Amino acid sequence: MYSAISSPGGTRDLIFDATLVLEAGETLSTVDATSAASFLDVTGAVANAAEAIVDGITVAIGKGILFNVSTNASATADAIIVVTFTGDQGSADTYHAILPVTEFLNVK
Fold first, then answer.
1. Do residues 39 and 15 touch, judged by C-beta distance below 8 A?
2. Which helix or strand (DSSP H or E) is residue 7 part of?
3. CA–CA distance, 1 with 6 (Å, rounded to integer)
4. Secondary structure in 3-state letters for 43-75
5. Burial group, residue 76, by CB count within 10 angstroms (0-12, 13-18, 19+)
6. pLDDT single digits (tens) 9-58
7. Is residue 18 helix, strand or coil?
8. d(CA 98, CA 50)
9. Which of 40, 44, 76, 99 has its CB 3.0 to 4.6 Å from that of 103, i.e. a possible disulfide?
């Protein structure tokens, strides 16, 4: 689970680890990450070209989908991010992840 992103203007670099759903020796060949939420931009989806360590877990080269999310408007809602991919041995799948977006309030 990801921590909430404050809006507007909040950003997060995220990674989706596909290691357990790819076949042994398979790497990602096409990747995409999108959201239908009008207040959220999802950009830059790529397969990781270098090993990544996220929360103490190592994601091997070609096994993770890196992308950026940013809020473009004020919102307090959960945004669904759709991550799709195919592997070089034919695996293909779609996952839906929920990213909470919360209004950042200055309380005085």
1. no
2. strand 5-7
3. 15
4. EEEEECCCCEEECCEEECCCCEEEEEEEECCCC
5. middle
6. 788 888 999 999 999 999 999 999 999 998 889 999 999 999 998 878 89
7. coil
8. 26
9. 76
Contact 95, 82 (CB under 8 A): yes
Tokens of 12: 């997060």
Identity of residue 41 = D
The neighbouring-strand residues paired with 34 are 82
Task: To the nearest 10°, report the CA torsion of 93, 55, 103, 42.
Answer: -40
Q: Give the CA distances from residue 103 to residues 4, 34, 43, 99, 108, in Å, rounded to whole numbers and listed in that order.
A: 10, 21, 21, 13, 16
Q: For the chain, which domains are there?
A: 5-103 (2.60.40)
